[in-house]
Design a protein that fits this description.
CATH architecture of the largest domain: 3-Layer(aba) Sandwich
Radius of gyration: 24 Å
Bound molecules: adenosine-5'-diphosphate, magnesium ion
Oligomer: single chain
Helix content: 25-40%
Number of domains: 2
Number of helices: 17
Structural class: alpha/beta
Strand order of the largest sheet: 6-7-8-3-9-10
Strand content: 25-35%
């Protein structure tokens, strides 16, 4: 159905696609994998007409095509769902779907008709989407299905999905994959970009592996394994499992007693008590939205708790702000790196000093930045944490997600914290970087630091944590030994089943 031949695309000095060639067969699910920055999104955005290639050829159904912009792509039956949704919150599903359709085209005419058509499309694929619902009232998973509907509504035969599962819970992923399978049965062709090897193995028929702007492999899913894919992706053998010794917990560093934090709808954290000792990783498992975000933000001093006590190294620090807590030795790797972790339009150098920008060694006691000290700091973070490209003057937004994450982790590690609060450390990060981030967290633990880890990835949190707390509806509902507890047992506690 689709063939790319020797596609080349550079952005200034950065060669995003060096030589990309691949073949996607009709009515299959074709996975594209590769590390962050490998050029996957660029290649697919070229197919969708978002970028024009510098060289190479695209064939659709065996015929060369010239896709100048997304209009051309849509006219050829190509749809794309981007990593960041492009929906208008305050409008309905149907309004969003017909939005941007060319005036005069039949889909822009009649909202009632559109509602009916969308309803029947949704029913056909069991998407369970009400065309008249407001986007802001939908869950992330539902919004994604709206994006799918939008592409299908424009008669897409070939659907490109860029990391569609990054924002979904495990249950939503399962549901989503069933939808993709139904679409395949209807004869649709699906290209899915993903980081997760278990997902590739579960959903795809064929896999293309990209590395450094090139396609380096093409295999049938049935004939490969996670290990082989990982090796192709990274170019070397990768540890897919975390290796660590038993923790040697020492003195209590963090003591939380009856902490309550107000959320948008009532009490998000509802009387939580636990402690974290030096030299251990305490994990918090739970379905997202059960108070994890608010708990970590309260401990990091970003929001005030409603009641309860927080002690750090034996001193009451309840209600202290983020800056004070950071000065005491509490570092924070936030779950949302765009909202909380980085200034996207600022340089890597500027981002590398956030939180310490007002004090020595990067600023004088009078508060003036010392550019040499800033440069030293950013270069050491870039080197120690392998941030690519190694260019301090680049803006944070020009880095891939995995490299943004490494920059944040490097910045927080540079504080040599006594306590690290870390949420979703590897969300949207590729496997080479995941291995590195996991290793860094274990090394920090082994240096005798205390770590509180929140992750929506059950596998990650059970692999890293020495003790695992389960949170549900703002309460700690249990503690298990991650070495012996089963996924079923933890899952039941998470869901209250
Ligand atoms: N619009 C752009 N301008 C400049 N550089 C870009 C742009 N889009 C992507 N890049 C760079 O091209 C490379 C490949 O990026 P991308 O295709 O997004 O990778 P992937 O999707 O595999 O993570 C990266 O180094 C990225 O920083
Ligand atoms: Mg991408």
């Amino acid at each position: 159905m689709l063939e790319l031949k020797n596609i080349h695309k550079a952005f200034g000095d950065c060669v995003a696609n060096d030589d990309v060639s691949l073949v996607v067969h009709r009515a299959t699910i074709h996975a594209i994998v590769g590390e962050n920055g490998a050029g996957k999104s660029t290649a697919m955005k070229i197919v969708y007409g978002f970028y024009n290639p510098d060289g190479g050829e695209i064939l659709l159904n065996g015929k060369p095509v010239n896709i100048r912009n997304p209009h051309d792509a849509i006219a050829l039956g190509i749809g794309m769902v981007h990593q960041h949704f492009m929906l208008v919150d305050t409008m309905t599903v149907a309004e969003n779907i017909i939005l941007g359709a060319e005036t005069g085209s039949p889909i822009n005419l009649d909202l009632d008709q559109a509602n009916r058509n969308i309803k029947s499309l949704s029913d056909e694929l069991k998407l369970n989407i009400n065309p008249q619902a407001l986007i802001e009232d939908l869950s992330v998973g539902q919004q994604q299905r709206v994006e799918l509907l939008k592409a299908l509504y424009r008669n897409a035969d070939l659907l490109i999905l860029d990391e569609p599962t990054a924002v979904l819970s495990p249950q939503e992923v399962e549901e989503f994959f069933n939808i993709l399978r139904r679409m395949k049965e209807q004869g649709k062709t699906i290209v899915i970009i993903t980081h997760k090897l278990d997902e590739v193995l579960a959903i795809s028929d064929e896999v293309t592996v990209m590395r450094d702007g090139r396609t380096v492999g093409n295999v049938r899913t049935a004939e490969t394994s996670a290990k082989e894919l990982a090796r192709m992706i990274v170019g070397r053998d990768v540890l897919l499992r975390v290796e660590k010794t038993d923790a040697k917990p020492a003195a209590t560093v963090l003591q939380v007693d009856g902490l309550a934090v107000e959320g948008r709808h009532g009490m998000a954290v509802d009387g939580v008590s636990f402690s974290v000792a030096a030299g251990e990783i305490v994990g918090i498992a739970g379905i997202e939205g059960n108070g994890q975000t608010e708990l970590i933000e309260a401990l990091a001093g970003l929001v005030d708790p409603k009641s309860g006590r927080v002690k750090f190294e034996g001193h009451d620090v309840t209600g202290l702000g983020a800056r004070k807590l950071k000065e005491l030795g509490i570092a924070h790797i936030p779950e949302d790196r765009h909202k909380r972790g980085l200034l996207l339009n600022s340089s890597l150098a500027e981002n590398s000093i956030l939180g310490v920008h007002y004090r020595p060694p990067v600023a004088s006691t009078a508060g003036f930045l010392d550019s040499a000290a800033v440069d030293t700091r950013v270069r050491s973070i870039i080197e120690d944490f392998d941030v690519r490209p190694a260019m301090p003057e680049l803006t944070a937004k020009s880095l891939s997600g995995g490299n943004q994450q490494k920059l944040i982790i490097g910045r927080e590690f540079e504080l040599d914290p006594k306590l690290l609060l870390v949420s979703q450390p590897t969300r949207g990060v590729d496997i080479g970087a995941i291995e590195f981030i996991h290793r860094s967290l274990i090394d920090l633990r082994d240096k005798g630091r205390a770590i509180l880890l929140v992750s929506a990835e059950l596998e990650e949190v059970t692999a890293l944590a020495d003790r695992l707390l389960i949170i549900r509806e703002g309460k700690i509902v249990g503690e298990v030994d991650p070495k012996t507890a089963s996924v079923e047992e933890i899952g039941l506690m998470m869901t209250g089943g």
